[in-house]
Amino acid sequence: MSQNDFHYDMQSFLGTDDEVVNKTDWTPLKGGGQSAKSHNLFKLNNERLQFRIALRTAIFFIYMSLLGFVLILVSMFGDMIGMEGSGSPLLGGLVGLLFVVAGLFFFNNARVRITIDRSYPAIWRGNIDPAKVMNPDSIDGYASLKKLHAIQVIQEDISRTDDKSFESYEINLVLHDGKRVHVIDHGDREKIIEQASQLADFLSVPLWDGCRFEEYESGIRIPAFVGRGLELYSWAKISFAVVVAGIFIWTIYQDLRTSKEEEKSYQALPVQHKVEIARAHTKELFVAAKSATYNRDRLKTLIERGADVNEKDEKGRTPLFYAVMSKNSNMVYFLIKNYADIHTKDNEGTGLKDLLDPKKDQQLYFVLEDAELAEKASAQGKTISGVSRTLDHAGNVKSIQVVYR
Predict the structure, then answer these.
(1) Taking Cα atoms as reference points, which of 382, 377, 319, 381 lies closest to residue 346?
(2) With contact defined as beta carbons under 8 Å apart, do 150 and 171 qualify?
């Protein structure tokens, strides 16, 4: 379709012979959009209208930031509620930070008010009144409306990376020369037409509703209740997400509360009873170390309730000894982190590294070596930030490089 045919069709579609239509671009002035209503229109006085962020939009962005904040807390203090083993704390913290920053960024942008004053006449963004400054053009989004000709509403199809799409609608001010000034865009067609009509009546100019032009060309008509159903579906998804987040936060709170109550009950027990509990928990720690299972929550409770990580059985073997024997790397990590003796030997003089093949059990072997290096560094008042090894073609260690903080 040629440009002239396009303008002719738009004139037919709008039911007007206004030549300014031929000068006006009917593609979106501002790319992107939102799938739901983002702003409400308020009448401040007889001369001024103002767009402000819609309540549910504000709730959604605040919810996004709160969800991110919860993820950060879980990544930092997850061990308090037994969630540390659910993933990387650093990754969880970064994802949470991304949610917090994105939520605050979008909220901060959306909360900027857009004012239309017909007595001045002008449109601008923010809280600075152009009548009170020397250079109104310095105000964000400022544009004079002395040559205002019409209000334009157009539709834009927004495609997402998940192969889904939605429609966003844009209100623009059209000047006598066909140039346009962007006002607002959001995904509620019924509401944006209502806002555009209110704006056109307020400014005494015609409304050019260019939405559904493709449907006009093809003869397709979509009932209004379909659009309303999509809006309700979008709102239902947001509500569901808020409820799920609320349940998640409440569960965390209850877990923390239960842990504190259990700790309080334990501290109130007689000393002899605590000693008996510690002995029982030490036995359970041995059982866990001999098995291939790993329950970090339970192990943490055993340690907190007095289980001795360096207790030896009749063979002179500690829980760490059995963890190395069973090649339970998670258990080895946990016990070393909780100050298990890495130099322990059994009654026959067998040490931990004697239980491993330096090549077949290389990863676990390096764990014990790293623990020894960290212990030596600590004795010298240093802290290791990293250990790297160079291997030959046969898999033997050629050199070890230790990086200190």
Answers:
(1) 319
(2) no
* pLDDT above 80 for 369: yes
pTM of the predicted model, to two decimals? 0.49
Q: Is 343 helix (H, G, I), strand (E, B) or coil?
A: coil
Instruction: Give the residue from 364, 342, 255 showing the smallest Cα distance to 301.
Output: 255
With both helix axes pointing from N to C terminus, report the angle between 271-290 and 296-304 in degrees, rounded to the nearest 10: 150
CB 182 within 8 A of CB 198: no
Question: What is residue 221's three-state secondary structure?
Answer: coil
Which of 58-67, 85-94, 352-361, 383-392 has the lowest average pLDDT? Answer: 85-94
Q: What is the CB neighbour count within 10 angstroms for residue 103?
A: 20
CA distance 348 to 345: 8
Residue 220 region by backbone torsions, left for phi larger than 0, else alpha for psi between -120 and 50, else beta: beta
> At a CB cut-off of 8 Å and minimum separation 6, what does 345 contact?
316, 351
Buried b (16+ CB within 10 A) or exposed e, 391-401: eeeeeeeeeee
Rounded to whole angstroms, the Cα distance separating 162 from 175 reads: 38
Mean pLDDT score of the chain: 81
Is the confidence at residue 227, as pLDDT, over 70?
Answer: no
- C-beta atoms surrounding 28 within 10 Å: 19
- Token pair of 132 as six digits: 């009170």
Q: Confirm if 37 and 188 have CB atoms less than 8 A apart.
A: yes
Instruction: Find, among 382, 357, 379, 383, the residue nearest to 368 by Cα.
Output: 357
Q: For the residues 173-200, what does the mean pLDDT come to?
A: 90
- Residues 252, 260: Cα–Cα separation, whole Å: 12
- Report the 10 Å Cβ neighbour count for 368: 21
3-state secondary structure (DSSP) of residue 344: coil
Q: What angle do CA 174, 34, 101 make, to 5 degrees?
A: 120
Please report the DSSP string for 237-303 in residue order: HHHHHHHHHHHHHHHHHHHHHHHHHHHHHHHTS-HHHHHHHHHHHHHHHHHHHHSS---HHHHHHHH
